[in-house]
Specification:
isomerase, 2 domains, Phosphoglycerate mutase, PG/BPGM_mutase_AS
Length: 224
């Protein structure tokens, strides 16, 4: 079964505005964040969504609801919104809510990397998670292996939906670092991955539920 996934980065939150790490913690949408959600809704208003998913964070849920509101007003049948923890952003543990530059300096410093992009350039994206877990005094932050095990569970959740059929369109509200991580995994060449995708942007993936997860995803467009 081939599914067309439309992944939207949630609207801007106050933590986004203040440049703070925001994984499992909640922060309200700003007025710009509401506008981000409505912009995405306009882009997606003509799609018939067979299912809709988001993480169990309010920023994702509100973004999803606004998109589905406009979609329904455009004459489409509104699918039930499924919120699940497998679709959350990376968990930053002790560093949740901290200034991003401070957190990534703490993670990369012991390894001779000065910031997030420096860690990626020298050690790869996986190291950003492993270094942060190492720097976390409680070691609660997700390692790369822990992160992908959870995210892959989200794909399994979608694949197991008995209401979906080949060719269906699926809405999924996602998160900045998760979208960036998916791009690094499935389309590391041909796209500018130096920054996270914009709030309210749409990334489209084809998901073949019958393939092993490493071969199941094809990127159609990014950060649109």
């Amino acid at each position: 079964m081939l599914l067309h996934l439309h992944l939207v980065r949630h609207g801007q939150t106050f933590f986004n505005r203040y440049n703070r790490l925001q994984g499992w913690s909640n922060s309200p949408l700003t007025q710009s964040g509401i506008a981000d959600a409505d912009k995405a809704a306009t882009k997606l208003r003509d799609y018939d969504f067979a299912a809709a998913y988001c993480s169990d964070t309010t920023r994702a849920q509100i973004t999803a609801q606004r998109i589905l509101d406009m979609n329904e007003l455009a004459g489409h049948v509104r699918p039930a919104l499924i919120s699940d923890m497998h679709l959350r952003e990376q968990f930053y543990g002790y560093f949740e809510g901290q200034d991003m530059s401070v957190a990534w300096t703490a993670a990369g410093g012991p390894h001779g990397a000065k910031n997030y992009n420096d860690i990626v350039a020298k050690f790869g994206l996986a190291a950003t998670r492993d270094f942060l877990k190492e720097a976390d005094p409680f070691h609660d932050a997700e390692s790369d292996a822990e992160y992908w095990e959870r995210v892959e569970g989200g794909f399994s959740l979608i694949a197991a939906n008995p209401l979906l059929k080949d060719g269906d369109h699926v809405l999924q509200i996602s998160h900045g670092n998760t979208l960036l991580s998916l791009m690094h995994r499935y389309a590391p060449e041909g796209y500018d991955l130096s920054e996270r995708p914009a709030n309210g942007s749409v990334t489209s993936l084809d998901f073949d539920t019958e393939q092993p997860i490493d071969q199941a995803v094809t990127v159609i467009s990014y950060n649109q």
